[in-house]
Amino acid sequence: MTMYCSQISQDYIISHLLDLRMHGTFVDVGCWRPIRFNNTYFLESRLHWTGINIDRREELKSSWMRKRRNSTLIIEDALELDFLKTFKENNLPQVIDYLSIDLETPKATLEVFKRIPLDKYSFNIITFEHDGYWRGREWTDHTRSHITSLGYQLLFNLRNQDDVYIHESMEKPSNDKINKILTSLPPKYSEIINVL
User: Average pLDDT for residues 71-97, to the nearest whole number?
Assistant: First the structure.
């Protein structure tokens, strides 16, 4: 049985953009719960991906240790984390398949994104939570301008909450592939995506 867990189809979209790639890598910043509403659980449990999960909430640790044994949980404030050191210590490749970044405030999300050493590491796909539904168009445009200036192309907007980007080194998905992803979405997600 397929078990997609993310809140607004991030795991479904990422896995299908990458053709259900096996043994990929991820970084999940602001990971929160190990399964429910988690953007990387499906990738780890069904596609055997590995990676690091970062959250500051110590109370999550025991649940993560029981439910997510194939990835590393780092309990630390992402605003204070040395990402370069963390990536090196965890032997992450220079090209990482997926970055999920979702912190408690959109401003913190962007501040942390700017701390990630994108001069040394890149991500094939990024989901970035900007919370434009309450922060407004100006904020969303600001985050998009910053991320696209770093070599990422905006593909989707999910419920005016998250944006999905691909790195410029990746071939942009064909319209047929995008349509196939959109038409095969689970019904509860079918009206939340805007193709950009």
Answer: 97
